[in-house]
Amino acid sequence: MSASPVAATLPADGPVITGWSAVSAHGLSRREFADGVRSGLAAARTEPEGKKLPRPDACLVPDLDRPGLLGQEYSYTLDRLAIMSLLATDQLLVDADGGPVPRTDDRTGVVMGTTMGGKESMAEVIRGSLTNARPFYVDVGLIPGCVMNHSAGAAAIRHGLRGPNATVGGGRVSGLLALNYARRLLDQGRADNCLVGSGDEFSPTNSWLEQAAGTPGEPAPLLGEGCGLLLLEPAGTNQLPPLASVLAVATAIDVDDDPQATVDYCARRAMERAGVAPEEVWAAVTTAVPTPEGIAERAALAELVPAEALDRIPSMALLGDTGAASASLQIAALLVVAGEDPTAAGRVALVSAVDRDGTAAVAVLRLLEVTS
Length: 372
Prior knowledge:
Peroxisomal Thiolase, Chain A, domain 1; 10 helices; disordered N terminus
C-alpha cells in the first residue's frame, strides 16, 4: 500500500525543477507532448523516406523540416538533433503563451545528454571522405553536427547563455547523468541556474546501428526521437514556482552482466541518500525499452516499489525507443501526470534508466507543485 501524501514544502537547499519542455513524436510543443501523455495513446508512426531501413516505421517528430521553423537566421543546414534541441530551448526560455520565463545571464549553464551527437552527419562525412576524389572533399556544412556538443553550443549561442556548457554522452542514461552534472554545478556555485536535458535523433545510420547492437535474430526495434529539457535552480533562489525537488541521483556500472541487480543497487542507494523508503514511492518511470536490460530494469523496480507505482505514468514505449532522450522525456511525462493529480504534491517518484553498455542510474524526485 502506498504511503499517505505529505506536505509539498520547498526544501531548504538542493536543486529544484522549475520548468520543462519537450519535443517528441507527439508534436513540436510542450502542449502537444502533454496532450499525448494524457491520452495514453501511442505516438503516430511514420515511414521514413529514402534509404532502405531494417524496419519501415518509426516514431518521428512531425514537421521538423518545415521551412523557417527556427527563423530565417537558422536557414542553414542543421541536423535533426540540433533542431529539436533549439526548439526545446526556445520553449523553455520564450513562453509563447505569455507565461513567466526565467532570467538568464552569464551564470546560466547548459548541460545536454546525448549518445554520440549527430550520427547521420558523422556517417555522411565519413562516407564522403572515403568515396570522393580526395579525402577532404566533404560537405563542410555537415561538420558541426559531427561534434558531440553541437546542440549544447547552438542553444547557448542562440540565447546568449555564457555559463558552464557541457555535453554528457551516456546513451539512454544521458538525461540522468546530465541532471547529476547540473546538480553539482549548482551545488558548487558554478552556475545560478541550468538548462539540463538530453536528446537523440532518428536517422538511417542510427537505425542500422541499433539493429546491429541488438540480439541476433530479434526483430528491429521501433525507434523514436526527441529532446527533453528541464530548468534546474537552487531552492530558495528559484525564479519560477518549483515543480519537483531533486533529492538524489545514483549511478552504477554493471560489471557482472546482471542489469537487474545494478538497477536495484542504484534505486536503493538513491533512496537511502534521499531518506525515503520504497513504500513511499508514488510513481516509478522506466525507459520501457524491449531489450534484456530494459526488461531487467522494470523487474528490479517491480520487486522494490508498490505495484501501482510502475503503472502511474504511461509507458515510454508509446514514443518508441528515444535513445538518449529517454530519461528527460520520462521526467517530463512524470510532471505532466503529476500536474493532473491533486494528490501528487509531496509524493516521491523514481526515474530510472539503463543502457546496453551497462550504465544505470536512478533519480529520486519529490513532487512539489500541482501544475499542468
